[in-house]
Write a structure and sequence with these properties.
Two copies of one chain form a homodimer. With 134 residues, chain A is of the alpha+beta class. Helix content of chain A is 51%, strand content 13%. The first copy, chain A, has five helices and five strands, in the order αααβααββββ. In chain A, strand 2 and strand 3 (116-117) form a beta hairpin. In chain A, helix 1 (8-18) packs across helix 3 and helix 2 crosses helix 3. The structure holds a DNA duplex (30 and 30 nucleotides).
DNA sequence: GTGATGTTAAGGAGAAGTGTTTAAATCAAA
DNA sequence: TTTGATTTAAACACTTCTCCTTAACATCAC
């Protein structure tokens, strides 16, 4: 099985960066353009973020499905819906209104436009009142 | 940015599996063959393993490069090399000979053939004597 | 402004991943 | 042994990723 998201190239660049080299210096070493080094580094960081996100998802498997935030919904109405649903299943949400909205928006910025939910968002909650969005 | 390694299909299958459904039952629900469900589930688990592996790599960034095991090297000679190098940098390796070899082989099975190292393997060590291979 | 650093966009070639089907193989339990 | 569950392999169309180049743009320090 292929293992690890990062390519050899990406690891190489990350190591050099960790050692404080500039993109130009790295470009000289690995014989390519600095633009390319930038691209490779960016891809590497995205891959790391994706890895984190993937493991984050595993939590939703242990959590129970709470509700679905329908596309078109006003983001500011989400907390009340979630609090109500959480109460039904007897769990206290561990986030206040503001941090709940922040968590929601941070979970996947692409799914929101201003105050509006663009696509359906599934909401999961675990025993601790932790929320996950999928 | 695309986020998460798992496709919707893969998440769907994992959720049904978590709920105890058989591959056949899932196949009926999502209207495909059970073989396909198996493939999707397997791919999902591989992706999760890859995510873990990716984050594991981050540790090597905080570690210092110890040495390179050259292709063709006898695997059984690796521990001595590593112990010697670790001593030079003043760190005690936290693995005995046997578990060191196991860790090495587990790190990436493809890189070994029997007792022989096929490709160069970079060895990293951190302050705790933990080893990472890249 | 000049130079160094970093980012972004557009495009291309090759590699890899995904979902799918079909068919065959393994495995455990009734 | 027969049945249900799971796994594997091969093949195919599609999509996405990766690395690369070139060229332009944005910061920031000197």
């Amino acid at each position: 099985m292929k293992q690890g998201l990062l390519t050899d190239r990406q690891k190489e660049v990350l190591r050099y960066r960790k050692n404080g080299l500039t993109q130009q210096q790295i470009a000289d070493i690995i014989k390519t353009s600095k633009a390319n080094v930038c691209t490779i580094e960016k891809a590497a960081l995205e891959n790391i973020a994706r890895a984190r996100d993937t493991l984050e998802f595993l939590y939703t498997l242990d959590a129970t499905h709470l509700c679905t935030l329908k596309g078109g919904l006003d983001l500011l109405k989400a907390p009340e819906i979630i609090y109500t649903e959480a109460e039904k299943v007897g769990v206290k949400v561990k986030y206040d209104t503001v941090s709940l909205i922040n968590r929601l928006r941070d979970s996947n910025p692409d799914r929101f436009r201003g105050r509006q939910v663009r696509e359906d968002v599934e909401v999961y909650i675990n025993e601790d009142g932790d929320l996950y969005f999928g």
